[in-house]
Amino acid sequence: MSGDDGVLKIDDGMCTSSCTWNHFYNYLSSSSSSSSNVSSTKITTVYEWEKTLYPLFSYVLTSILFIQRPSRHRMLILMNDIFTPRNLREALLRVLLDYLNLGGVLLVNGGCFGSIQYLLEGMNLSISPTTTTRQPKASLVIDIGTNEARIAVSAPGSSFLVETYQVVSAGYQAFLRRALTLYQEEVKEEEDNDAKDWCTNATFEDVNAIVEAWIIATNNDQSSSSSTTTISVEIPSLMKQANEQSESSESASNTVQQLSVLPLVEAFHQVYLDYSQTTSLTYAILSSVLASPIDLRKAALQNVVLIGGGAVALRSFGKGLKVELEKAIKTACGVSIDNETNNTKEEEEKKEDDLKVSSIARGRFQSLRAAVDSSLHHDNDEHSGVHIKYPDPFAPDLAHWLSGSIMGKLRLSNEDWIHSDSSSSSGSGRGERLRR
C-alpha cells in the first residue's frame, strides 16, 4: 500500500489485480477505464486522509473479511513507503483504532522488505535442495510487482538496509507497456492495415497473450526457440471484436496474428537487462549492492531471491528470468559468460556495440567484478559468483502475505503494536508513538 498525490494505491502483490481509492470514496479498478479519472488533488491534511481511509477499511472489514467484532482482531499493514507521511499514519491509526475499533495495529514501513527476513530465515538458500547451509550474512531481495520493482539488501537481525532500497518502473505492466510501444512503432513502417488497426486499439491483455504464447513456444521447442522470430497469437481484443461482429451478423475479422517476437525480446532487454539505463532492473540491482556495506556485497549477490507476481509471470521468459538476470549482472560487471562459444561472444560484443554502451556505463559496476566472477574464488564455495533463485517451496507471488503473517504471529506481544487503549483521546500518546 502506498499513498501518492492524494491517491491510495493498493496492489495484491500477485500481478492479478490492483485498485485505487481516491478521496471521493470511490473504488476504482486498475482495469477500468474510469481509473484515469482519479482526482489529482493532493491530500495534505489528516481529515482528508480520514475521508479516504475510512470507507476503504470499512469495506475490507465488513465486505471482505466479514468481521463482526473488530476489537478482537489486530491488523498488520505493510507500507511500501519507507518514510510514510505523518498525516497518513495519524489518520490511519485514528480510522482503525478510534472509528473502526480494531484491537491493535502494526505498521511496517518498506512493504514486504520489512517482514521478508522472517521468511528468509526459514528458507534453504543452498543451490542443492538436498543440502542445507547456515543463514547467509546477507540476501538481496528483488520484488517485481505490477507497476514497479523494488530491491533491497536484507541482513539477519534487521528487516532491511534502508540505504540499499531501490524502486524502478520495471514491473510486469511496465514491460507490457514498453512491448506495446515497440509493436506500435514496428507497425507504422508496415503496409498491413489489419496490423495497424490491431496495434492502435491494443491493450495490455493483448501483449500479455503474446508473452504467454512466446513462453509456450520456447518451452515446447527448446532446440529451435532461439531461432524462432515469429509466432501465431490469438489476440483477445480481436476476439471480442469478432464476437460483437458475429452478434450483429457482420463478417468476423481474423483473430489470429502472425507477430514478430523481436519487439518483445527488445522490451525485455530494455526494462530488465540493459545496465546502461538507470531505469532497468539490472542497474537497480547493482546500485543496491553498491549501496550496501562492502563486507555484505559478496553474500548479497550469492543469495538473490526473486519474489512478486512479475517474477512469476516472467519465470520462463527466454532462457528464464533468473538466468537472464545472472548473465546481465555478469556482463555489467565485466565478467565473461562461462560455457559460451566464441561465436556467441562475438555476437554479444556486436550487440553491445549496436547498443552503443558508453565507457562510463561499462565501468560503473566494475568494482563488483571480484564478487561476481566465480573463477576468482578458490574456496570451493558452491555459492560463488551470482546465484538467483525463487523462494521455493513458498510461492513467490505470496511471499508478501506469508512473511507478513509470520511476522504478525511472532510479534503478537511486541511493544511495536499500537493499541487503542494505549493512546489517549487527545492523541498525545499516539503522537508520541508516531515519532518512534
Structure description:
This protein starts with a strand and ends with a helix. The chain is α+β, with helices and mostly antiparallel strands and 436 residues long. The model is unreliable at 3-7, 16-40, 339-347 and 423-436 (pLDDT under 50). The strands form 4 sheets. The chain has a 5-stranded mixed beta sheet with strand order 9-8-7-12-13. Helix 1 packs across helix 2 (86-99), helix 4 packs across helix 8 and helix 9 (281-291) packs across helix 12. Helix content is 41%, strand content 14%.
Number of strands: 14
Q: What's the main sheet like? A: 5 strands, mixed
Label the structural class: alpha+beta
The total of helices stands at: 17
